[in-house]
Design brief:
8 strands; about 240 residues; alpha+beta; Lipocalin
């Protein structure tokens, strides 16, 4: 991939909407790329756009960001490794939901082979795997505090899409059950159905961490997020757009 250098002085003359639209255009249909390719793409193409938008963040104070992010978002491009730890993620059925009770759900549908025309014809007979990582969120010392608190799974018919309504209903029911039961935090050893132990171990390493979480830019409809699981790990970047 050839690097395209965009000068800061050129980008500084763009409107904020032009910058956001260009980021979305550059990353369109690229979220399914291999992780190493996306990391390189970020370094070679996206850095100047992220840097320019971060200078224009309309909500730099974290406390002010909380009411802005409440609702449903879809990550349209991300370098977070766990997003594709399982095969067959359906990108337009992936959601980030911030609720008003201090919980945050990362939800995705996985349907291996969903691009196959032959398997699409058999969709009524096949099962999809819906996966939710439930996290609590708060603001402490002027920073986001994100803590993994639970994992939920569901097996559903593949021909019934995981819509925004269904994702919200699932998230709400899980949060209400957790509040009613005053459930403890995520156990030190996960029990996940129908996943091999090696895959479960990968999830444990990720979800037992307390990731750093920062909005480089956030407004009512667009978010640039930087996360980092551990100090020595490279940061990950996510572009999210509001769905509701």
């Amino acid at each position: 991939m050839n690097a395209t250098v965009v000068s800061s002085s050129r980008l500084s003359s763009w409107t904020t909407e032009e910058l956001k639209n260009e980021i979305l255009a550059l990353t369109k249909d690229r979220d399914a790329d291999p992780l190493n390719k996306k990391v390189l793409f970020y370094k070679e193409q996206l850095v100047p756009y992220f840097e320019e938008l971060s200078r224009r963040n309309p909500y730099p104070i974290v406390e002010d960001q909380v009411p802005v992010v409440l609702g449903v978002w879809t990550p349209v491009w991300s370098t977070i490794p766990f997003h594709d730890s399982l095969p067959g993620r359906i990108h337009n059925q992936s959601y980030q939901i911030f609720g008003d009770k201090g919980y945050y759900g990362n939800i995705a549908r996985y349907a291996p082979g969903n691009q196959s025309n032959f398997l699409q014809k058999l969709s009524s007979l096949l099962v999809a795997y819906d996966f939710m990582v439930l996290q609590s969120f708060a603001v402490r010392d002027g920073q986001w505090c994100i803590q993994n608190v639970g994992i939920e799974q569901a097996f559903r018919r593949r021909n019934s899409a995981l819509t925004i309504d269904k994702a919200e209903d699932w998230f709400t029911s899980v949060v209400e059950m957790r509040l009613d039961a005053k459930k403890a935090d995520l156990p030190q050893e996960l029990t996940l159905k129908n996943l091999d132990r090696n895959t479960v171990k990968k999830f444990e390493k990720t979800y037992l961490a307390s990731p750093k979480f920062e909005h480089l830019y956030v407004d009512e409809n667009f978010r640039l997020v930087k996360t980092q699981r551990e100090e020595k790990q490279r940061p990950s970047y996510t572009i999210a757009i509001r769905r509701r």
